[in-house]
Amino acid sequence: MIGLKDIACWVPEGRIDNIEQAAGFGEEAGFATDRIGARTLPVMAGGDDTSDIAARAVTALLEKSGTEPEAIEFLMVCTQNPDGNGLPHTSAMVQVKAGLPTHVAAFDISLGCSGYVYGLHAARGFMASAGLTNGIFVTADPYSKIIDRTDKNTSLLFGDAATATLLGPDGVFEIGPARFSTDGSGGENIINRGGRLDMVGRQVFNFAASKVPPQIKALLKANGISQDDIDLFILHQGSRYIVETLTRRMKLPPEKVPIALEHTGNTVSSSLPMILVDYLDRDGTDRIVLSGFGVGLSWGSMLLNRTN
Amino acid sequence: MTLTNDDIVAIIEDAGTQIDMDKLQPDTAFEDIGADSLDIMNILLGVQEKTGAEVPDEDVEKLGSINAILAYVNNG
After folding, report:
1. Is A99 left (phi over 0), alpha (psi -120 to 50) or beta?
2. What is the pLDDT of residues A196-241, one digit of tens each?
3. What mean pLDDT, rounded, does chain A reach?
4. Contact flag A245-B49 (C-beta cutoff 8 Å)
5. Cβ contacts (< 8 Å) between B41 and chain A: which residues?
6. How far is A248 from chain B (nearest CA, A)?
7. CA–CA separation, A227 and A216 (whole Å)
8. Cα A230 to Cα A14, A15, A184, A278, A288, distances in angstroms
9. Which residue did the predictor score with more confidence, B2 or A140?
């Protein structure tokens, strides 16, 4: 059974002072720190591209897990901001930059903030179907490439980061049941228009606040699990405000819903693994809900069950 | 669906806004008693869910108090 074995993250050193940015938009520091939830935002260096930060996450994962590159047979990169115009696929560049062997099956998938939940299942399914043993699922969606720094709706929110998740037998977590949804009628609410990210914050907030709780509840109900049985709810870190709103709407204990975007901001498909990495070997977190939501509009929620 | 003053107060309480509820009066502008744009967005989501009617983005600026919302929803 293909499970989730390990995670490594790579966050650029470059930082945008979000309090300063907020002041430039006429907002007090508290808007950045308490409402958006991000004091600083990481931004990748000018000479770097998506495949560079993705490859660094892969290298960090190989080192952390003690995995030989030759053992890797599968590489999937989730991004909507690929190198160049997406041709060739970013995963092919990551294969060579991270020193992975040519026997790697590599492809990209296009999803935003729901990408980690979708991706775990897509990766597991491909690996199982093809009979592959060791794979890496990368998230790398550096929005700094498409942010207009004069646009308050987006400039205060997003940070650059990449993650790499090792998949294979004897995982720490079983990749459990999931629920997936899509509503393309709302797609224009988060869209890349000619190289510039355009977002209607209110519509995205309404979507998340109204669609995510029933999806998680349906997931739990379908699996005969109550909210109380869940040790941790890792929700996409769109902003501190949306995580707190979802917590309130679902009547979840706040201590079960981590908020961790103070120095990362919203890192799109990387936000869930960037939190999950801290719980890989933490006691008392045997059953975890992951929920990602955003671009598409697309949303997905799943269970992770600890195996040992 | 017709909304009352109490309905809006309940929506605001459920939304968990920064509004100072002791100062909340029907004509008080939400932004004068602690609300920011996120709070107003949250209140209007509650209004949408209660009435089943969508509030278009271009109307949001008009809906900064209980009475403004009541007039909009009930006479709309």
Report:
1. left
2. 999 999 999 999 999 999 999 999 999 999 999 999 999 999 999 9
3. 97
4. no
5. 201-202, 205-206
6. 8
7. 9
8. 36, 35, 30, 17, 6
9. A140
User: Which of A210, A241, A248 minimises the CB distance to B38?
Assistant: A241
Looking at residue B20, what is its pLDDT?
94
Tell me the pLDDT band of A181, cut-offs 50, 70 and 90.
Answer: very high
Cβ atoms < 10 Å from Cβ of B74 = 12
ipTM of the complex: 0.92
Residues of B in contact with A209 (CB under 8 A): 42, 45
Q: In the predicted model, is pLDDT for residue A35 greater than 70?
A: yes
- Cβ <8 Å between B41 and A248: no
- In DSSP terms, A7 is beta-bridged to A165
Task: Check residue B26 and give its pLDDT.
Answer: 95
Task: Please enumerate, as own/partner, the contacts of B7-14 that have beta carbons within 8 Å and a separation of 24 or more.
Answer: B7/B50, B8/B43, B8/B47, B8/B66, B8/B69, B8/B70, B9/B66, B11/B43, B11/B46, B11/B47, B11/B50, B12/B43, B12/B46, B14/B46
Mutation target among B18, B37, B39, B42 for the A interface, most CBs of A within 10 A: B42
A262, two tokens: 């103070």
User: Mind listing the pLDDT tens digit for each residue in A241-298?
Assistant: 999 999 999 999 999 999 999 999 999 999 999 999 999 999 899 999 999 999 999 9
| Chain B contact set for A210 (CB, 8 A) | 45, 49
DSSP 8-state class, residue A183:
-
Q: Which of B12, B36, B38, B40 to mutate to test the interface with A (most CBs of A within 10 A)?
A: B38
| Alpha carbon distance A54, A60 (integer Å) | 10
